[in-house]
Amino acid sequence: MGRHNENIGHQARKRFGQNFLHDQGVIDRIVRSINPKSDQNLVEIGPGLGALTEELLKSGGSVTAVELDRDLTPILRTKFFNYPQFNVIEADALKFDFTQLATPERPMRLIGNLPYNISTPLIFHLLTFRGLVQDMYFMLQKEVVDRLAAKPGEDAYGRLGVMAQYYCKVESLFNVGPGAFQPAPKVWSAIVRLTPYTEPPLACKDVATLTTVVRQAFAMRRKTLRNTLKQLITVDALQSLDIDPQIRPERLGLPEFVRIADYVYDHPLENES
Ligand SMILES: C[S@@+](CC[C@H](N)C(=O)[O-])C[C@H]1O[C@@H](n2cnc3c(N)ncnc32)[C@H](O)[C@@H]1O
Predict the structure, then answer these.
(1) Is 9 annotated as a binding residue?
(2) pTM
(3) Which of 143, 161, 212, 271 has minimal Cβ neighbours within 10 Å of its Cβ?
(4) Domain containing 222: what range?
(5) Cα 232 to averaged position of ligand 1 atoms, centre (Å)
(6) Domains identified in the chain, total number
């Protein structure tokens, strides 16, 4: 414990969501899960002071790190100057165009102990590059991992889980307590693995329509489908799809959402805005 982040004099910045990992056991466990190989294209988001980066570099793979805090990039360059396969880019990962870091032939393995305040929009941003991604390993607030991996009927089930599971196989790997970080966050964290499908197993006709249906359905999660989806689909149409209009959205699985989205795409209601 405490091996990293010492003697560097960097004050953790709350606005950048800086909670630095300092538990070597947790770092090793994450890297063992990733199992990086020397010919791989590893991309780390938010390397911080390089606790994970160092172990990734030891695998021999190339590591490109995307870090927003301009005070950290020189520290990282100095720390890893012995590793020619290390590169740090000073950029906001939320706006960064990841197409410059990978090709379909050399996809990225995305890794990050992500800033918790931006993790949901960042995951949606990263999903847009899924064709260039082999897999993703993220440390997130446990509550967000629960939402990503949630199944129908669970409290955590909602838009994030449905859309992530549409594009990716989602696996919650293990939990990490606050004491593994400096400063310690207030909440528990967890590691999630997202593996994008080459082709979604339940492909819908139009993802924009699926997104609209899912967003609308969960906008009022305590209401029944006949209410939440009334601007998109009629009760008769829901019944024709073998979906009970009286149930709440949290009971619908991905196949039902895809069925509704395909119907809505083929039969747009006139009052749809
Ligand atoms: C939770 S810390 C993790 C640091 C390090 N990976 C570790 O495990 O100790 C999050 C890191 O993401 C960086 N960060 C915050 N917002 C960012 C953004 N929009 N784009 C890229 N990096 C960001 C922070 O400066 C910080 O280094």
Answers:
(1) no
(2) 0.92
(3) 271
(4) 207-266
(5) 40
(6) 2
